[in-house]
Amino acid sequence: MDAKIADKVDTFFDSYRLRKYAKGQVLILNGDAPEYVYHLLSGRVKQYDVSYRGDEVILNTFQPPAFFPMSLAINQLPNPYTYEAETDVELRQAPAKDVVVFIKENPDVLFDLLTRVYRGTDGMLARMSHLMASSAKGRLMFEILLSCRRYGEENTDGSYTLIMNEKELAARAGLSRETVSREMHKLIEEKLAVLQNGTITIHDMGEFEAKLGKVI
């Protein structure tokens, strides 16, 4: 987000109370009709559905400086998803109607929002492509690659470290935990990844991405 736009968004939300949520707390429950928009200042919030088997399926993850759920605020549609703090978070919440007025009165903020929405849409389309056409291994590799780019930490040697366990990967890739464990073992055997204490390390992102391109 452009610094001037970020300042404008911060100034708007600063007039509303700061709130803190611990990891695991639910902000919006499936079926709720939220009257507020949340501006995320720190931490991550996941948006997920629950499959017919009772498995959590993560659809999207918000991180600063996101504000959400804009689709519900603009379209006033029923909410079919749950929004939960994936880490400890700090945020401000403003009435949805006030946020909509603010966006309408600030075309630069609206354009920035659209830019980020379309960027996210491209990522979701890429994920859909892998979900529809790739093997379990390809789906898992795609989620690891995407998560490394979004939440991973780049180390001085060029490797990436991602704090994420097999249960979380399963929820993101739409796979069972058993399948993730099996496919993760293959990646470790191929020396493409290292899994230790809930942390995944990718030593060579270029090699990992090249390998993903060959996986069907």
Quick gist of this model?
The chain is built from 8 helices and 12 strands. The chain has 216 residues and is α+β, with helices and mostly antiparallel strands.
Break the fold down into its secondary structure elements and pairings.
Blueprint: H1 3-13, E1 18-21, E2 26-28, E3 36-42, E4 45-50, E5 56-62, E6 67-68, H2 70-75, E7 82-85, E8 89-95, H3 96-104, H4 107-133, H5 136-151, E9 153-154, E10 160-163, H6 166-173, H7 177-189, E11 194-196, E12 199-202, H8 205-214
Antiparallel strand pairs: 1-8, 2-7, 3-6, 3-8, 4-5, 4-7, 9-10, 10-12, 11-12
Helix pairs in contact: 4-5, 5-6, 5-8, 6-7
Q: Would you kindly provide a written description of the structure presented here, covering whatever features stand out?
A:
This protein is an alpha+beta fold and 216 residues long. The protein has 2 domains: 125 residues, Sandwich (Jelly Rolls); 81 residues, Orthogonal Bundle (Arc Repressor Mutant, subunit A), CATH 1.10.10.10. Helix content is 46%, strand content 25%. It has 8 helices and 12 strands. The strands form 3 sheets. A 4-stranded antiparallel beta sheet has the order 1-8-3-6. Strands 2-7-4-5 form a 4-stranded antiparallel beta sheet. It has a 4-stranded antiparallel beta sheet with strand order 9-10-12-11, covered by helices on one side. Strand 11 and strand 12 form a beta hairpin. Helix 4 packs antiparallel against helix 5. The chain is globular and about 55 Å long. The mean pLDDT is 85.
Say what the CATH topology of the largest domain is.
Jelly Rolls
**CATH level 4 superfamily of the largest domain:** Jelly Rolls
CATH hierarchy: architecture of the largest domain: Sandwich
Query: What ranges have pLDDT less than 50 throughout 5 or more consecutive residues?
Result: none
Number of domains: 2
Shape: globular
Share of β-strand residues: 15-25%
From N to C, what is the helix and strand string?
A: HEEEEEEHEEHHHEEHHEEH
- So how many helices? 8
Rounded average pLDDT: 85
Strand order of the largest sheet: 1-8-3-6
Number of distinct beta strands: 12
Computed structural class: alpha+beta
The biggest sheet amounts to:
4 strands, antiparallel
